[in-house]
Write a structure and sequence with these properties.
The protein has about 250 residues and is mainly alpha-helical. Helices cover about 85% and strands about 0% of the residues. It has nine helices and no strands. Helix 5 crosses helix 8 and helix 6 runs antiparallel to helix 9.
């Protein structure tokens, strides 16, 4: 099977947890604190994957300068795109409380979908890039994406449910996002198949910068607001689980 096809399938597996999380929001009425706790755990998982699978590996590939320049560029690009989405009604796309309902018609499903796709593209691209050069998929990165997507789908769908969106609308939207993010993995493997180590390092760093900014701007606020005092501990636990996966199978 071609590498780009493998990347697409791995990306689809990683993003499938978005749909699973969204479905759980309609099957089980989870307390706000539970969804926020899962979000906090997912933050820790992603932070570990960013540090060890993106920053460290990128540094080993290309040195410090592609890491610094790529991470800053990725952070600035995500900040600009997130600001654009937020001003058009997608600010509370990860919130499980009443924020989406309070925004009313402004928080359209399309804007929420675009914002969620924005969140998923960087991690999906690097999942595909990781297969370039004949290497296998990173177990730690795959687990990080899957585990962090689960609370994102759960939290956002819970908020959409409170806003009055139908199950068909929400599950259809998350299914489409899962397919599109899988396409980003496919493109990551296809576009960077012959890239230099320096360029691969920069791509990893850009994704790292975007992901860290996303965690700080959109995931941590939901986790802190809903979980309160337990957020820090859950973040640490998530980081340790992902680190163990990285050491054992990454």
């Amino acid at each position: 099977m071609p590498v780009w096809a493998q990347a697409g399938l791995w990306g689809l597996l990683a993003s499938s947890s978005l749909v699973i999380g969204a479905a759980l929001a309609y099957v089980v009425d989870l307390p706000r604190r539970v969804t926020a706790g899962i979000m906090a755990f997912g933050c820790g998982v992603l932070i570990s994957a960013v540090a060890y699978d993106l920053i460290m590996e990128g540094f080993q590939l290309g040195g410090i300068w592609p890491i610094v320049s790529g991470a800053v560029a990725g952070s600035l690009a995500y900040t600009a795109a997130n600001l654009l989405v937020s001003t058009r009604g997608g600010k509370h796309r990860k919130r499980s409380g009443t924020q989406q309902a309070d925004q009313g018609g402004e928080a359209s499903g399309l804007v929420i979908a675009v914002g969620s796709l924005l969140d998923g593209i960087p991690e999906s691209i690097v999942l595909g890039v990781g297969l370039v050069g004949g290497g296998g998929v990173s177990v730690a990165m795959l687990a990080a994406i899957f585990l962090s997507n689960l609370p994102e789908g759960l939290s956002s769908a819970a908020g959409m449910k409170q806003a009055g969106r139908s199950k068909t609308h929400v599950l259809g939207m998350w299914g489409g996002i899962a397919v599109l993010t899988a396409g980003a993995s496919l493109c990551g493997a296809g576009l960077f198949a012959n890239a230099s180590p320096w360029l691969l390092a920069m791509v990893n760093a850009m994704a790292a910068g975007a992901l860290l900014t996303m965690i700080a701007d959109t995931m941590i606020p939901e986790a802190v607001e809903g979980e309160h005092d337990g957020t820090g501990t859950l973040v640490v636990l998530g980081l340790l689980v992902a680190f163990a996966l990285s050491q054992g199978g990454g």
